[in-house]
Amino acid sequence: MSKIDKVVLAYSGGLDTSVIVRWLQDTYGCEVVTFTADIGQGEEVEPARAKAEALGVKEIYIDDLREEFVRDFVFPMFRANTIYEGEYLLGTSIARPLIAKRLIEIANETGADAISHGATGKGNDQVRFELGAYALKPGIQVIAPWREWDLNSREKLMQYCEQHKIPVDFSNKKKKSPYSMDANLLHISYEGGVLEEPWAEAEEDMWRWSVSPEAAPDKPTYITLQYENGDPVAIDGERLSPATLLEKLNKLGGANGIGRLDIVENRYVGMKSRGCYETPGGTILLKAHRAIESITLDREVAHLKDELMPRYAKLIYNGYWWSPEREMLQAAIDQSQSVVNGEVRLKLYKGSVSAVGRRSEDSLFDEKIATFEDDAGAYDQKDAEGFIKLNALRLRIAAGKGRDLI
Amino acid sequence: MSKIDKVVLAYSGGLDTSVIVRWLQDTYGCEVVTFTADIGQGEEVEPARAKAEALGVKEIYIDDLREEFVRDFVFPMFRANTIYEGEYLLGTSIARPLIAKRLIEIANETGADAISHGATGKGNDQVRFELGAYALKPGIQVIAPWREWDLNSREKLMQYCEQHKIPVDFSNKKKKSPYSMDANLLHISYEGGVLEEPWAEAEEDMWRWSVSPEAAPDKPTYITLQYENGDPVAIDGERLSPATLLEKLNKLGGANGIGRLDIVENRYVGMKSRGCYETPGGTILLKAHRAIESITLDREVAHLKDELMPRYAKLIYNGYWWSPEREMLQAAIDQSQSVVNGEVRLKLYKGSVSAVGRRSEDSLFDEKIATFEDDAGAYDQKDAEGFIKLNALRLRIAAGKGRDLI
Amino acid sequence: MSKIDKVVLAYSGGLDTSVIVRWLQDTYGCEVVTFTADIGQGEEVEPARAKAEALGVKEIYIDDLREEFVRDFVFPMFRANTIYEGEYLLGTSIARPLIAKRLIEIANETGADAISHGATGKGNDQVRFELGAYALKPGIQVIAPWREWDLNSREKLMQYCEQHKIPVDFSNKKKKSPYSMDANLLHISYEGGVLEEPWAEAEEDMWRWSVSPEAAPDKPTYITLQYENGDPVAIDGERLSPATLLEKLNKLGGANGIGRLDIVENRYVGMKSRGCYETPGGTILLKAHRAIESITLDREVAHLKDELMPRYAKLIYNGYWWSPEREMLQAAIDQSQSVVNGEVRLKLYKGSVSAVGRRSEDSLFDEKIATFEDDAGAYDQKDAEGFIKLNALRLRIAAGKGRDLI
Amino acid sequence: MSKIDKVVLAYSGGLDTSVIVRWLQDTYGCEVVTFTADIGQGEEVEPARAKAEALGVKEIYIDDLREEFVRDFVFPMFRANTIYEGEYLLGTSIARPLIAKRLIEIANETGADAISHGATGKGNDQVRFELGAYALKPGIQVIAPWREWDLNSREKLMQYCEQHKIPVDFSNKKKKSPYSMDANLLHISYEGGVLEEPWAEAEEDMWRWSVSPEAAPDKPTYITLQYENGDPVAIDGERLSPATLLEKLNKLGGANGIGRLDIVENRYVGMKSRGCYETPGGTILLKAHRAIESITLDREVAHLKDELMPRYAKLIYNGYWWSPEREMLQAAIDQSQSVVNGEVRLKLYKGSVSAVGRRSEDSLFDEKIATFEDDAGAYDQKDAEGFIKLNALRLRIAAGKGRDLI
């Protein structure tokens, strides 16, 4: 590694990344640029400014990226009905490429030669940040303090704070939680603590965004979601910006106990890990998108999307948002969405979301053909015989030659 | 078609198939063998005997196929976490190959040269019955009365009954429902009636197997499901036969409002169709199987299964259970399941099923490595740098050559 | 079927389709519009005019579709390195959607209510014509005489000619071959005759487009093919139109004994069939396209293309060119091709084509990194350790838990 | 890394690995066990014994692994018609897991705590050796000298020999080639030298196993290959062991100029690399296996295999032979092969191999159905209409609703 003059740090304003500021200054003798983003994590970002200033940072970036996050990352991902390992809605994964992109943009603006982040060496996030950074600026250097330093316990971090006179209120004592958490407009996640025992049930007071189904209202909430080109644009007839729409869905879902998930997942770095997630709005969006697609997408297009989806989800989970193969898949997915328009009516009730109605100008549902009643010749039942006979031909030939299936 | 002497009919004892008995006798001048199976549809099958006798049938088969159904069809399918179009648990589809197999076995035993069924020419079931039959006995002839006759309304059927003196109590008047229904141990389905309008919500009194989430108990039910080789074998420590286990899960799920589904699906014959389903036990099984796999399966095996699943689901939906390609996929799926052993703890509550704990002698979850605490060197965080650097190499080279991802 | 007033027939001018003209006139009492296309089959199309006139046809379409064929069908297909069942370059399959499209355009222009073609009821071509037609004009009617009439032998056809005074020189006696042949700019195919015995070797005098490797020149021919956006645009520096380029490659390949193929393939209608093919230019194009992609495409994009290709090939083989799923796949394929620019040097010699050199402004081949010599730090070999260690982690954990791979 | 007492080295007897013996002894102060395998590389392995002894090695393993190599690695791989990136027959890749397995077996027998190999830090082979080793013995340590030492040029190696009195005739001067080569029963490969410029044609005198097509006999050679369960068992009626059979095919292929390949491939470590390969026998086997499958495999099984193949090839290329996902795929592939029996007749001529005939007791080719002549009702052409109509239904509905494909 050549000498580093200036580094852009993804800075939350919390204890860990505040320590990193000082550690970077001391270890690399370099200038630190901080970057703090509002991606809907639910905390004020402006206070990060004073903290950074107190640490001697001169170039401070504080951005509201909520609309960009939902419009350019969350919505494109939901066009594919994306789920990792059958369960996980990729709430953390999808935010990382946006951070990586912004880190590189700021490095370009400020002439920095490195970026840094507070992700550990065991997790997926380091991979997502760094793959993105390298893909967007191949000569960039990356400093991952958690892989370099020996401050690998809370005690050592606190000691470091004292030694370096980093104000301890940076440590957000009030919020101190036994869990490692991550939040953005799409979800909040919990890892660590008692969750490290996969047999142990998560405690009720861990969950922050949703009431328990037990505590949800006794009456269902009905909403209508409107789609254009595969993206939701309105709730109950009210057009909303992407971030506002997702925020509102989070409220509606959370109030009805929707979107809790408790899984063991496979990390890209090779280990299994227990995680709990709350994704109220995302859970609704997945259900709604499938419902609007169910009447507007061609069957084979829908099936092709289903077969490509696990691979697309894996790309995002593993940190390859910024890759030509993700863009190639996205081209296919997006190509399919121009007909995905219409409305879905949803019932939210005590932890469940159901699609109870769907309609569209672009509907391919043909009541005249599908009906159990007389269809006036729209469909000739006799066609089915030839259809079956020829689909069976290869099976009949094989059976006739003695091939045995049982 | 050559002359038909004897035909085996899948006979429910209801109005439609009773008409078919007489129509076959009259139209083909052939002997009719009836076959009635208990696959858990929840109706007595023995009464079919007297009805068949009254219609002059001499060879009457009445079989209890519940254990075979769950053991050899439902469980193998759930090993793949099978879902069609992201939602449907294939309750109807998976029963058809068993019926087809039994029809052919009976044809072989009785020397029949044809089989017959009461499925319409618009649906998937005709395809499933007939593909199975042709695959198992290539020279068999198939009579599908609904594609041949002109009795295409209830009135004409009733008229036919009168003309041919078929007792009208065959028509099960009490049960007359506005929906076309199908049931077996895995599910009950509803089509037709008001459901033909996809925007219309299903009426509450349509559902038969589950209480509404609203009406479910206010306290959650916890159960522990034990797996061996990918199949569930015990509930709360009590070993149960496949059918008994599924039956119990249906009760547990139904009582907690679990397993309702309302979708528009794509039929193999080319049209979209609205269907509502109740699959209480199956919904629990899907969640539980994913949970036990989450700690026992290798990551890449799990991902491979996820990528193959949509194709496997489509094969079953389209009627290709009895095909060499399904058997080839099954070989891969089954090969992965010998390690899928252990226990899953589940919470059932007002329409939702959540996995809250999982444990196994075969667990690959390694708390020593996954921990957020000091791992005593079990994992070297510095390895991550090389991992990321080489995974990024192709991206860095491309970016260095000016390829632009944004 | 409702009454038919006017039908557009894909008319070759040969015996079979001439009989069809008269048979349509007689059987349906309708007007026949003939459509004859030059797609490079190597026969004059203009003579079809007089023949059609002689049969009383008033609206006669004769089109030169060679450029459209290569530009809009052959080239897009080769962007995917398309091969069916590992061997077949889809020469027949890819011409059919163009014919179907033109039949429908002419039906629209002439106000015809039906189309007709001379493909038999056993083959793939009927499916390709008709799926295309239905997809482009859903209300169109299709008349497939070979599925309807009983003129199913040469003798009956000749007899029909006599009865209906169809000039027998329509039967192209000179060219009478024991094989059923099809030709266009991409290939010529042979079926039937002795080929119906898959153990019998094709006779040397069957092949028409290529010399035998034995008869090819003793010195290799070298050519350089230039690509832009995934399509070939020049040979040895000479820019050529798509059709001209393919024509020239056919000559070069044919002269060097390149592109013969003898296979048993699986038809969509369910049977296996023996076919022999000559695809001289296409064989060269496949090799060249892979070679130019090998230095310009990202690895994961290339692999994704390889995994999608069999499905894409199957779509084309089965007749689904005009389908939303083919267009979705095409979007992904085309998205990958903007970087596929550069030159490939090829050696043609006695039946073989080899890529011996490739270069491109868009090359991702990085000699500084790939070199066996000192790379001046372009690649840090120590990165490989972490890369391997983390890729092995899941395997090490599993082995540590006693999982056995041997 | 803990202290190493004994290391098993994959030892060729050449200069590089001889230097490694001494370097390991000096650097780690450990005992070295050498392992030299005959996998058909065409060099005597016995001389390695004296060289190892001269270096003070006490435990020397020299194994003839040729039969195991072909039977348990090459043949299973060819059952899948495996090709990497459309061209490469994986000759190097498939030998590595066998070496890894044997290294671990010897480590277990000798109580060694580490293995070592002579692969560089830039290539795929280090990955293949090490992934295999970790997967089979998770606690094993790996020493990869090329990633650790600074002897990264021929001069430094020679200097090291002098300093450490390693006899310089170990360097195989006679064979000194400008290329980096690797050979085994399946192939010989060439990298480096002028090949590092992808535009430069490989020189004729580089190739060692095959005559040039120009120099091949003017008359074709015909052979018949017999298959059982997907593996070749006899040539021209003579049953041969796996290794003997492949050896003979190499001679036949090489004599006819078959199996040369010149490509740029994508390495797992992220770079593109030029390689030339001679795989005479393997090229024949690929053609022959596809041919025997073409008449014995069900269509959908064949297509499923084709879709899975690229992923299977990638696993082997990347070093994941010893992985549960490869074994899962192998289970599917092997399940399909019990019917792959019969004979293929092949023509070898001046660089080309063609299948000219194929026959089998298990053939699904049905001449009665496929025939262009009268089939006596074996196939009802009228079935095709219904087949096409229903396959077109979704397309017709979409077109009827105004969806536009052009």
Q: Describe it for me?
A:
Chains A, B, C, D: ATP binds at residues 10-18, 37, 118. Four copies of one chain form a homotetramer. Chain A is an alpha/beta fold and 406 residues long. Helices cover 40% and strands 19% of the residues of chain A. In chain A, strand 4 (114-116), helix 5 and strand 5 (141-143) form a beta-alpha-beta unit. The longest helix of chain A has 20 residues, at 299-318. The model of chain A has no long low-confidence stretch (mean pLDDT 94). Chains in contact: A-B, A-C, A-D, B-C, B-D, C-D. Chains A and B meet through helix 5, strand 11, strand 12, helix 9 and helix 10 of A and helix 5, strand 11, strand 12, helix 9 and helix 10 of B.
Short description:
Chain A is an alpha/beta fold and 406 residues long. Chain A has 13 helices and 14 strands.
The average pLDDT value of chain A, as a whole number, equals 94
Strand order in the sheet with the most strands of chain A? 3-2-1-4-5
Distance from first to last alpha carbon of chain A: 64 Å
Radius of gyration of chain A: 25 Å
Question: What is the global morphology of chain A?
Answer: elongated
Unreliable runs of chain A: none
Largest sheet of chain A: 5 strands, parallel
Summing up helix and strand content along with how strands pair, one would put the structural category of chain A as: alpha/beta
Strand fraction of chain A equals 15-25%
Order of helices and strands of chain A: EHEHEHHEHEHHEEEEEHEEHHHEEHH
- How would you describe the oligomerization state of the chains in this entry? homotetramer
Give a count of the beta strands of chain A, DSSP E runs of length 2 or more: 14
- The percent of residues in helical segments of chain A reads 25-40%
Q: How many helices of chain A in DSSP terms? A: 13
Find the biggest chain interface: A-B, 111 and 111 residues
EC number (chains A, B, C, D): 6.3.4.5
Protein name (chains A, B, C, D): Argininosuccinate synthase
Catalytic activity (chains A, B, C, D): L-citrulline + L-aspartate + ATP = 2-(N(omega)-L-arginino)succinate + AMP + diphosphate + H(+)
Domain Arginosuccinate synthase C-terminal (chains A, B, C, D): 179-397
